[in-house]
Amino acid sequence: MNIISCIKQIPDTETQIKIDASGKGIQTADIKWVMNPYDEFGVEEALRIKEKKGGKVTVVGLGPQRVVESLRTALAMGADEAILVDDPAAEGGDALATARALAAAIKGVPFDLIFCGQRAVDDDNAQVGAALAELLQIPLLSVITKVEISDDKTKVKVQRPVEGATWVLEAPLPALITAQKGLNEPRYASLPGIMKAKKKPMAVKKLGDLGLSPDQVGEAGSKIKIHGLTPPPQRQAGKMVEGETVQEKGVNLVKLLREEAKII
Amino acid sequence: MANGIWIIAEQRGGTLRKISYELVSEGRRLADQSGQSLAAVVLGQGIAEEAKKLAAYGAETIYVAEAPELANYTPEAYTGVLADLIKDKQPNIVLGGASQQGKELGARLAARLETGLAMDCVGLRLEGDLLIAKRPIYAGKVFAEVVCETARPQMATARPNVFSILEPDAGRTAEVVTVSVALKPEDLRTTLVEELADQSGKVDLTEATCIVSGGRGMKGAEHFIILEKMAGVIGASVGASRSAVDAGWRPHSDQVGQTGKVVNPNLYIACGISGAIQHLAGMGSSKVIVAVNKDPDAPIFQKADYGIVGDLFEVVPVLEEEFKKIMS
């Protein structure tokens, strides 16, 4: 089976996010960039399917040169080939603009299955997978925690947790799956894996290579524009609940929740 | 010329979900501010009567699309029906829920309509014809205001539990319009094989109005029972920090934080959670935060409205007893 796994590089979740001078972006100095954690689940699942069913895993990323590092990580985990769309004009796009660039990047790459993370934990948009499925006109299975490929490799059965239930869904291949935590435990790259990854193919593409013009992708090709960023509402400093004993503190807290916060 | 505000209502098993009432209420507020009409769209099978409930909250038109294939939500079938209807009627604004199905549906629908969608919004306002949508990014470390300037409709999904529900007015009526449904084979590729009901019966964390969460300080899976017991008294759902989930004490679905669920309950009680930045991001919008922790310097106290420095194994049983007294 041929599987494509899409990767986004994001600031490590321990990062303090600060708004930049333009008021529309974040300060990027000193950020540690990592593979979006949900994309790791997608890469891992692609590798597990390949190990069971045979085939090839291609990882695709979009962003500046630093994204090569995350793609190499995926190659070191066991992916076979990588494609990077590295063109400033392709960056900063909304979901559809980004999906358009990804769709162009994988044109000609045969696939039975595509994985994306269920969302990137930077812009929390949760839309690129859906937009890519729409552009490719294939079924979309979102926020998935279990994947089973049929023996004849023509269908996929998945589990999708929703509020108060889990849906078991089935779709014919090719399909696009967005990965949720719980799908698997991603492996660490082994030392031989890291050595091998250095020799694996890494295709770097510009918009021209993809047959796209700058107004179709990136910020220029986006419908959604950022008006401005603001810090989150600051919480007022709270109070420590007084009391000589644990008992007293507990009584006082419940009293405060009832009489002051009026929440219980 | 695009006109009117629409909301995509959400039903499961023939019953409208709470988010539908939140959407129609917010839609009504925006419609009143701008003098636009408000319509609701409901997809399903045998749901026309249920759909009429939205009239009391201010929907003037209710589009009902019924077909056996629409009984259970699937993204392609719902996208197909909605895209046809929206292209035909050309609303100015389309709002959906940022629920599990609403996020997926919104994203695919926006792509088909080649328009912009502001996902998971916590504030919506109008500047003339333009919808200004406020949405947390980086799990709430920053808020972004976004707009869709040229493409129509302007789409947004609303985070559950954020937008208040209007008092229903039984005197209001709506025109119910039956939508003709023409599904294509490619709309029906994905099927729901079965729905496995969650046996715990607890409200999903993203929709919970009250959450009790445990972290590393819980010291083991077996101790979460004390949180379960206290949660039972106040009708709370139980969540966990990433350390508790990574330790295998709780399932992934319980994780609150930047790489888990972003929650916004009225009351969040954090027990034995130090308050790593990625956890604080996921629960920072809770209305009232209570922290119980042994370490007086734990960062969680910087976010908490009320803090108790103490051993959670002593504090939680006291709280449970006190809650029992006032709840009875």
Question: How does this model look, in words?
Answer:
- Chain A has 264 residues and is of the alpha/beta class.
- Chain A has helices at 37-53, 67-77, 95-105, 128-136, 191-197, 207-210, 246-259, and strands at 2-7, 9-11, 33-35, 56-62, 81-85, 113-117, 140-144, 146-149, 155-162, 165-172, 175-179, 202-205, 224-230, 239-240.
- Chain A folds into two domains: 2-216, HUPs (Rossmann fold), CATH 3.40.50; 234-264, no CATH class.
- Helix content of chain A is 28%, strand content 27%.
- In chain A, the strands form three sheets. A seven-stranded parallel sheet of chain A has the order 7-11-6-1-4-5-12, sandwiched between helices. A three-stranded antiparallel sheet of chain A has the order 8-9-10, with no helix packed on it. In chain A, strands 2-3 form a two-stranded antiparallel sheet.
- The mean pLDDT of chain A is 96.
- With 328 residues, chain B is an alpha/beta fold.
- Chain B folds into two domains: 5-188, Rossmann fold (3-Layer(aba) Sandwich), CATH 3.40.50; 205-327, Rossmann fold.
- Chain B is built from nine helices and 18 strands.
- In chain B, α8 links the parallel β17 and β18.
- In chain B, α3 (75-89) crosses α4 and α5 runs parallel beside α9 (312-327).
- Chain B is elongated, with a radius of gyration of 21 Å.
- The chains are: A alpha/beta (264), B alpha/beta (328).
- The interface between A and B is large, with 84 and 98 residues.
- β10 (165-172) of chain A pairs antiparallel with β13 (191-197) of chain B, so a sheet runs across the interface.
